[in-house]
């Protein structure tokens, strides 16, 4: 999997699938890597040119986290697409990646074919909470948030059913750069697209986890009411529904993108 150098920053990405197929970008959540999409990429690359990337400062992307905003995260996607000579694309993002997708729909809608926003919100959480979390990891490291991550990301039933898979993602969170993680927390603290949702024109699918304590079904319903013609689905999962309910998530994607 290659690394692209863009304006002095390094982005780790993969691009798989038929060369002539429509491009589908998959964007990871805070504290994870592109590996969170392994269960989707295996299926989707049979039909789409699947582009995954590690968000700046996550995984093997070494982009500077300095002055990171939601706009920065959205422009990273556009810079990556431009470098790969990709004009039109579908986009699927989860949590922070879903919020990035909303930004793209509002600021690069002419390039976006279809949008999937999963386990996300137009405003995720409260600003004070994100600032406190940023301060926590900067002072105490990633263990301070990793210790409770499983309970935020997955239901107890999934943790019992797939403990090794759960540990895989918690281990990746522990390895995340505290500086990069904190920068993204501060970006989320300032990100609020609630008043702009009605301007989204791209066909949109919202996916919500019924047991999600981070971005609730109420957050998803708010977006459903604001975005014209949106499709909405709920899965029996917590915050990372693409992992916990992978087969059902894949079915929703394939049906919507077809």
What is the element layout, followed by pairings?
Blueprint: E1 3-6, E2 9-16, E3 23-27, H1 38-44, E4 49-53, H2 70-83, E5 89-94, H3 96-107, E6 112-118, H4 127-140, H5 143-146, H6 149-153, H7 156-161, H8 163-174, H9 178-190, E7 204-209, H10 217-226, E8 231-235, H11 241-244, H12 246-257
Parallel strand pairs: 3-4, 3-5, 5-6, 6-7, 7-8
Antiparallel strand pairs: 1-2, 2-4
Helix pairs in contact: 1-12, 2-3, 4-9
Mean pLDDT, to the nearest integer, reads: 96
CATH fold-level name: Rossmann fold
Binned, the helix content reads 40-55%
Shape: globular
The CATH architecture designation is 3-Layer(aba) Sandwich
Main beta sheet strand tally, sense and closure:
8 strands, mixed
Q: Which strands sit side by side, in order, in the main sheet?
A: 1-2-4-3-5-6-7-8
CA gyration radius, whole angstroms: 17 Å
Poorly predicted segments: none
Number of domains: 1
Separation, N- and C-terminal Cα atoms = 27 Å
Q: Tell me the number of strands.
A: 8
String of helices and strands:
EEEHEHEHEHHHHHHEHEHH
Oligomer: single chain
| Global structural class | alpha/beta
CATH class membership:
Alpha Beta
Q: Classify the beta-strand content into a percent band.
A: 15-25%
The fourth-level CATH homologous superfamily is Alpha/Beta hydrolase fold, catalytic domain
**What's the total helix number?**
12
